Amino acid sequence: MAGTHEDNIFFIGDFDDHLEQQVIVPLTQQVATQSERADGRIDLYINSIGGYGHLVMHMIMLVEAAKRQGVIVRTIVPNMAFSAGSMLAITGTPGERYIDRHADHLVHYGQIASFETTQEQVTRYRKYKERQFKHMLSHYVTYTDIPKEDLERNMADDAWFIPARDCIKWGLADKYTDKLDIYE
User: Fold this and answer.
1) Averaged over 39-44, what is the pLDDT?
2) Do 106 and 163 meet the contact criterion of CB atoms below 8 Å apart?
3) What are the start-end ranges of the H helices in the chain?
């Protein structure tokens, strides 16, 4: 496949403003291109400390659209998939989610900046955070085998680093990168 799919490889670092133009727009185009091929595939190399939730949710939507159209989405974690990076990495095609033996995922709720000044704002913000926590919990329950009780207890900790061996055990990844053939 190398040489015939040059534009189907994306390197994802932090989920910040540059991601929209440099990754999301070309990824959107590649979903359409790869879905027309019998051997359509997109490789997402994720080496990220995380970032904006709205960007990762957009990318997850694109990954799901690609998978529905028969495109294989391989996620490859060479060192770290923290926060938003973890959320994206687990969304790859089952059986095609790779992690280096020395890599980690960080599964956590994260922080949202806010500046409430009234009791009503505090109440609204608390409800928003509760909805977001439930959404993230549901995401990990859907894509992994982490026991729900462990997720509920540890996600809020904000420092739940999961080593590669446990990522494989709990279904955050399927294989180690030494099983990855980049030329397949």
Assistant:
1) 95
2) no
3) 18-19, 25-35, 53-68, 84-89, 119-143, 148-155, 164-169
Residue 45 three-state SS: strand
- In whole angstroms, what is the distance from residue 57 CA to residue 175 CA? 24
Bridge partners of 143?
Answer: none
The CATH number, out of the four listed (3.90.226.10, 3.30.450.40, 3.50.50.60, 3.40.50.150), of the domain defined by the range 6-179: 3.90.226.10
- Report the SS3 class of residue 77: strand
User: What's the average model confidence in pLDDT over 50-72?
Assistant: 95
- Token digits of residue 85: 């990076």
Q: Is 146 left (phi over 0), alpha (psi -120 to 50) or beta?
A: beta
Tokens of 11: 């390197």
Pairing relation of β-strands 104-107 and 97-99? unpaired
Q: What is the DSSP letter of 136?
A: H
Name the nearest CA neighbour of 182 among 78, 91, 103, 65.
Answer: 78
- Best CA proximity match to 69, nearest among 123, 31, 98: 31
Give, in degrees to the nearest 5, the angle at Cα 71 between 37 and 30: 70
Full-model pTM? 0.90
**How far, in Å, CA of 27 to CA of 88, rounded?**
13
Q: What confidence score (pLDDT) does residue 6 get?
A: 61
